[in-house]
Write a structure and sequence with these properties.
With 729 residues, this protein is of the alpha/beta class. It contains 31 helices and 24 strands. 49% of the residues lie in helices and 19% in strands. Strand 11 and strand 12 form a beta hairpin. The strands form six sheets. A five-stranded parallel sheet has the order 2-1-3-6-7, with helices on both faces. The longest helix has 38 residues.
């Protein structure tokens, strides 16, 4: 399932320099940006602009071309190497000048016309879009080096990630290894035809990956336009193209894809909600006439009917004759006439004639004209409760003149609860005043040892924080019923796990008299779960060893990498759960080596260019092996496999990710793997001395490795050495 990631923009993180000599205009522009949360700097002259630029990190410049002490284009030339993005304010309409300016790094022009203020007010949205562009990738497929470089400059200036291919083969390789949002496709490619390439790979490019395609060509016919649009191409632009038009259409396509992705994600979420409801409740749908159109598995199970026996039938197929018809009249009036939700308890009849009760909510689904399209019914099985109520009523009717009989029945019910549950009671001061035989049996405690002791006399297990118990008491002290897991260490030293419901007993004045805890022993279930987790970890560990063993590396290598990774994750600030996930997943960093020939893996010496190209593929191979797993650990292992050879400065592989764009799992595992590899004998090298290893790591800080992680490594070097000594080869 596609992950739903939504762009979060924080204007306070951006510095805006407004260069305008008009005092009234600079005030208006400043108000627009300040009210949007940006940090603003004001400069009426080129001189003041230069002073501000020298003293501050500026992200965006709003630049008036005509200034008292010079022309704004002078500043543009000076800032050609700066990372600041420039938006020009001008009265000029020279299209040729604008084309040239776009190529020199200007991202937009704002004409000083009657709509000037409105255009200025839209610049914050433009900046937001430019920042969103950093997560988008455009693939340029053109056999002209000049065209590729020009397009790269244009799109890079607008913060897009750009990849390039000079032919269909290169394009396909890039598509397989990267997430592409938009492809600019030239039709006349080296050794191939762009249109044929698109037809051949339509299923992958347009259907599966949903890559938007824009054709750019100097040879465009009406037939090509017709066939391309039918194929799924979104736009065709004729060479030579207008840069401003190209930028505008690209931004529109990217924006459209964002909306499509958001709709897809929201649809996926809705389906998850539906599945959750289907798994938790008894669900049916009926059309506007009350004819059943959908039932879930729970509906079939409780009614005894097969799905095909219910679809197309009226809901009265399960109506019980005991139900008063006035209930259904009132229900239909509510959902059909008033078009409101109806709630109630309904007695139904199964296929075999037996009765069942459901607590029901029926919602009418309306179209845009407020007409009922269908009805959705969500039900909860309350048969046990209703049968108990009926039984109690029957007993009461029989024994209404015999209070003692009623008390006797009540005692029987109490005894039944006592026999099937673990009961503990405490007074309002948290002092234990009662425990049933089941509690004494499982705890090993006696009545003398337990009664009159404070509740905290029961030793909590190490995995239970004191704050957890205190929060529980604070919750029930307010009159709430608490449900949750409690773990205790009892007399025999064994840890027992319980699902507990704690009910405050309240008198008619609202005062708490005591607390009753009803527990279910789930120790066996918890221990089984732990055993399953350990088994999963062992299997994953062995899989990691397989990858390492192919290159004649010891199993201790993956053990050390796992331990290094967990330690570094904890030092970095990842929580215990995430650190453990990385500990378990990191041994699989080189699982992709199963797809690399032995002749390359075990070559004693330097690999040639082709061999190295094959070796680098192990990251992608490992990712593809693991990526489709639904298990959290294997998902993490896929990330590690793909990213542990990426470098902080962007010169790694397979995706040339940079800085924090590299997942923290990959950044951590990279240091762990390299530290251990350098200190170990391999077929192609001898182990390095510590001094050489530490010098290499320090030299590669900010290049190969995350600087913060390297600092943490050296601050805790003794801990890493201890791990290395513990797991010597």
């Amino acid at each position: 399932m596609k992950r739903c990631d939504y762009f979060e923009f924080k204007s306070k993180n951006f510095n805006i320099l407004i260069v305008e000599d008009s005092s009234s205009m600079i005030k208006i522009i400043n108000n627009i940006f300040s009210s949007s949360g940006f940090n603003t700097f004001l400069a009426p002259t080129l001189k003041e602009t230069r002073e501000i630029m020298n003293s501050n990190k500026i992200d965006y410049i709003i630049l008036d071309i005509n200034l008292p002490d010079g022309n704004g284009y002078e500043l543009i030339k000076e800032l050609s190497s700066s990372k600041a993005k420039i938006i020009v304010l001008t009265s000029q309409t020279d299209s040729q000048l604008r084309e040239v300016s776009y190529q020199k790094g200007i991202i937009d022009f704002i004409n000083k016309d009657k709509n000037f203020i409105y255009k200025i007010s839209e610049i914050p949205n433009l900046i937001k879009q430019l920042e969103r562009n950093k997560s988008k990738t455009i693939l340029i497929v053109d056999d002209s080096f000049v065209v590729r470089e020009q397009l790269k400059d244009i799109f890079s200036n607008r913060n897009y990630n750009t990849l390039e291919a000079k032919n269909a083969k290169e394009a396909l390789e890039i598509i397989h290894l990267n997430k592409i949002d938009l492809m600019l496709l030239d039709l006349e490619l080296e050794e191939s035809n762009g249109y044929d390439f698109l037809i051949k790979n339509r299923a992958l490019i347009l259907d599966k990956l949903n890559i938007k395609v824009m054709i750019i060509s100097g040879n465009i016919s009406s037939n090509l336009i017709r066939d391309s649009f039918r194929l799924g191409v979104k736009e065709i632009i004729r060479k030579p193209y207008a840069i401003e038009e190209l930028i505008l259409k690209t931004d529109i396509f990217i924006g459209d894809k964002d909306m499509e992705d958001e709709v897809t994600c929201k649809t996926q979420l809705l389906n998850q909600y539906k599945n959750t409801v289907d798994r938790s409740f008894i669900v049916s749908k009926a059309d506007a006439n009350g004819i059943i159109t959908y039932v879930n598995e729970a509906f079939c199970e409780i009614s005894g009917y097969e799905e095909h026996e219910l679809i197309g039938r009226a809901h009265n197929i399960v109506r019980h004759p005991d139900m008063d018809s006035s209930v259904f009249k009132e229900m239909w009036h509510t959902i059909k006439d008033l078009k409101s939700s109806w709630k109630g308890i309904i007695k139904n009849r199964k296929k075999d004639g037996t009765a069942y009760w459901v607590k029901t909510i029926i919602n009418p689904i309306l179209d845009g004209h407020n007409n009922v399209m269908e009805y959705i019914g969500i039900r909860t099985d309350i048969t046990d409760m209703e049968e108990t109520k009926e039984e109690l009523k029957a007993q009461y009717d029989i024994s209404q003149n015999n209070f003692q009989e009623v008390m006797h029945l009540s005692k029987l019910y109490e005894n039944a609860i006592e026999q099937t549950n673990i009961i503990l009671r405490a007074d309002k001061n948290r002092v234990i005043n009662y425990a049933n035989d089941q509690f004494y049996k499982i705890s090993g405690l006696t009545k003398k040892e337990l009664v009159s002791k404070p509740y905290n006399y029961l030793k909590r297990a190490n995995n239970m924080e004191e704050s957890y118990i205190e929060n529980m008491w604070n919750y029930i002290a307010k009159g709430n019923i608490w449900k949750g897991q409690i773990s205790n260490t009892f007399k025999n030293g064994k840890i027992y796990h319980f699902l507990a419901t704690i009910v405050p007993i309240i008198n008619t004045h609202g005062d708490i008299l005591e607390y009753i805890s009803i527990r279910k022993d789930i120790t066996d279930i918890i221990e089984l779960h732990k055993e399953i987790e350990e088994t999963q970890r062992e299997i994953i560990y062995k899989m990691g060893e397989i990858g390492e063993s192919r290159s004649n590396e010891t199993g201790n290598h993956v053990k050390r990498v796992a331990e290094y990774s967990r330690l570094l994750a904890i030092l970095y600030g990842l929580d215990e759960k995430e650190s453990e996930i990385l500990f378990t997943a990191s041994p699989m960093h080189d699982i992709g080596k199963v797809g690399v020939p032995d002749s390359i893996l075990n070559k004693p010496g330097k690999l040639d260019e082709n061999e190295w190209k094959i070796m680098r593929k192990h990251s992608v191979i490992g990712y593809n092996i693991l990526k489709n797993s639904k298990r959290e650990i294997l998902k993490a292992a896929a990330i590690v496999a793909m990213t542990h050879h990426e470098k902080w400065d962007g010169n790694g592989y397979p995706r040339n990710l940079k800085g924090e764009d590299i997942h923290i799992y990959g950044r951590i595992t990279a240091i762990a793997d390299v530290f251990d590899a350098l200190g170990s004998d391999r077929c192609y090298k001898k182990a390095w001395e510590d001094e050489a290893i530490f010098k290499f790591l320090e030299d590669e800080k900010g290049k190969h490795f995350d600087p913060k992680l390297i600092d943490l490594f050296f601050e805790n070097i003794d801990k890493f050495k201890e791990i290395r000594n513990r797991y010597k080869d």
